[in-house]
Design goal:
Number of strands: 12
Low-confidence stretches: 298-304
Strand content: 15-25%
Helix content: 25-40%
Order of helices and strands: EEEHEHEHEHEHEHEHEEEHHH
Number of helices: 10
Radius of gyration: 18 Å
Distance between the termini: 20 Å
Strand order of the largest sheet: 1-4-5-6-7-8-9-10
Mean pLDDT: 96
Length: about 300
Amino acid sequence: MKRFIDIAANLTDSMFSGIYNGSLKHQADIEHVLNRSWEVGMSKIIITGGNLTESKKAVELAKLDNRLFCTVGCHPTRCSEFDEDKNPSNYLNSLSELIENNRNKVVALGEFGLDYDRVQFCPKETQQKYFKLQLTLTEQFDLPLFLHCRNAADDVYEILKDFKCSGVIHSFDGTLEEANKFIDLGYFIGLNGCSLKTEENLSVVAELPVDKILIETDCPYCDIRPTHAGYQFISKDNIMPSVKKEKWNSNSLVKSRNEPCNITHVLDVIASVKKVDSLELCEQIFENTNKLFFKTYFVKSSFS
């Protein structure tokens, strides 16, 4: 059976509590969501921390199962939160304390980085300031970085090259040149549905080295839709029944709400465009992920 690790799952999102746009549509179903992921071969899931509040929730959720882990950080579009009490160091210290007190569950620093597509939520200058500030956490913690980069590859690169770190550029949708620059710095490339939307995206993925690829769902977002270039490569056997949220039942996915179990879709597309065996590719990506986030496992498996 294939072995997967979803490196990006927004399981603290209200959709998994049955709430959509502030309206309750069905009961909380995180247990069913997780069970579906284990059934397809999921080994571990890394829950994304998008700000201090979400990071705390991610830690608590990760404590419910020994296969769940998380990141801690503040997303670029939410970096204005650092200024809310007029002392940014307080926010950074709170992130640091959360990591320090939960080292067995926190496997990466993030999600942080730069997002120039949504500067209406947070100006570029503020994003850059608090990206750099959060990078100082690497002085205290020997953890990889879980990085956000949207239409900002040049600036992300310029900032990262001054830090000797490892990590992943998550939800990558840039050019091959940009990917190679990050790879040369020692970073992995994280792929999900947003990485597989267009023919141009697929041409980039086809050229990425397999030992530098990680996969993710970024659920409940970034599903691969019928209008996306990659959709044609998804195996029909991996498409599970789905229903509208108003007709929720425990045995079906919710339409347009992505889940960790759909990581099989991401693998299908990558294997097809790279023209490689999906089982071998899955195992390579599994080892890549353990090498970055779970070094103890990687050492044991390499010498067993």
